[in-house]
Amino acid sequence: MNKELDHIGVAVRDLDGSIDFYTNILGGTLIDRYRSEATGVESEIAIIDINGTRTELLLPTNNTTSPIARFIKQKGKGVHHIAYHVDDLDQALKELQAEGIRVMKDTLRTNKHGRRLIYLNPADTEGTIIEYCDYPSL
């Protein structure tokens, strides 16, 4: 199945400061900023586009349950995940299963932009958090 980079998720402690850096220093454009309290997200998110490449800045909104908060406590701020766009998420999941790659089933969801996504189990990806996503409504 064809895969291409969709975005990079970056865990941050200061969303406004990070937006300032990505827009004023790197020359990006703020595409959207929103808050998601969905289980497994619990973050304020800013989407930055830099010449067609997107970065999601992720600020935890709940320091007790947010996976972004746990990530920052364990590893500090920085790259949280790499997302790959696949043609068909359902088919990609079947291919992963055939290869013995587990996914974190509780992360399967559709975000406000119509992107269906799921995270692969980092135990099977050499420790990197990888997201697979598709855009079935487009």
Task: Walk me through what this model shows.
Strands 2-3-4-1-5-8-7-6 form an 8-stranded mixed sheet. The protein is 22% helix and 43% strand. The longest helix has 11 residues, at 15-25. It has 3 helices and 8 strands, in the order βαβββαβαβββ. With 138 residues, it is of the alpha+beta class. It is globular and about 45 Å long. It has a single domain (3-134), classed as 2,3-Dihydroxybiphenyl 1,2-Dioxygenase, domain 1, CATH 3.10.180.10. A hairpin with a 6-residue loop joins β2 (29-36) and β3.
Short description:
Belongs to the methylmalonyl-CoA epimerase family. The protein has 138 residues and is of the alpha+beta class.
Task: Describe this protein with a few key phrases.
alpha+beta; globular; methylmalonyl-CoA epimerase activity; Glyoxalase; metal ion binding; MeMalonyl-CoA_epimerase
